[in-house]
Specification:
Order of helices and strands: HEHHHHHEHEHEHEHEEEHEHHEHHHH
Helix content: 40-55%
Largest sheet: 4 strands, parallel
Radius of gyration: 20 Å
Structural class: alpha/beta
Number of strands: 10
Strand content: 5-15%
Amino acid sequence: MFYGDGVSVSASVPLTVESIRDAPKVLLHDHLDGGLRPGTVVELADAVGYTALPSRDPAELAAWFLGAAHSGSLERYLETFGHTVAVMQTPDALVRVAAECAEDLAADGVVYAEVRFAPELHVDDGLSLEAVVEAVLEGFRQGTATALADGRRIRVGCLLTAMRHAARSREIAELAVRYRDVGVVGFDIAGAEKGFPPTRHLDAFEYVRQQNAHVTIHAGEAFGLPSIWEAIQWCGAHRLGHGVRIVDDITLDEHGEPRLGRLAAYVRDTRIPLEMCPTSNVHTGAASSIADHPIGLLAKLRFRVTVNTDNRLMSGCSMTSELLTLAQTHRYGWDDLRWFTVNAMKSAFIHFDDRLALIDDVIKPGYAALTA
């Protein structure tokens, strides 16, 4: 696995869109408001009288989202969410979007997912934070049941996100703890990193830690090592959302051998998971290309790397397309894709027994069937 030239063990089943879609996959970093079906955006906009969409044709709208997101700027990328959030302000809309999210992920072969959203962005029409969370959880329940009826089993956990430029993080942290026994698995902060360090929300992170709850933090995407260091050492992050800039603490010696700085070594030694989103990172300018994305080096160095979608609508991607692109670019085989998947399942914010059961009963047998 991850040989020096990037070649992995050969597989009896070719790596194709169809075969990768059938493989069991785990997704830890996916935004609910970044994964709507284009047709759903149009229908919900019509239902609430939202007239600011750049197009009412689903295909054209999908192309617009992809083009607008592929700007090389995280801030410009984030602007596209104005349209999706605008149509997610009612209980019915939130239930529908969450249900379709679960159905779409299951159809893509995802067996476990943690989907995040910011409750504070969905209260413009008077919903309470609690009503927002309950609508989303109901949608996940409905979507999971629909997928099961179609022969696809998926488990979806919910991550509650606070916006790092706002001042409601303690409220959202308390909400995450309040709903942790009915589907919420952790707490997150997101938004523009520059100028909004995670330490602005220390009160929220201290509360979550005191409550023995889980934390992932968007860090090291558009900003560098200080963002990662603060997320880990001040805020107690159990996982890093993106974390691509940890590569800035890795240098090459005169022989071309990598040398890890103290922060990079700490992240690797303590097995802090990196929620890497290759296509999205290219779109936001965090990486210049898939070939040059730090995921290749970090995987070779055996960091706890996971593969994720970030925003399926904005980046026009899926777990299948992300894994296929990586396999084609880095000449990965089934063993490598299994490694990414097991990494993610090990890093999920559910109980150890549940993680182990999915690894032993679903993931390993699924990949064994592809390499037999």
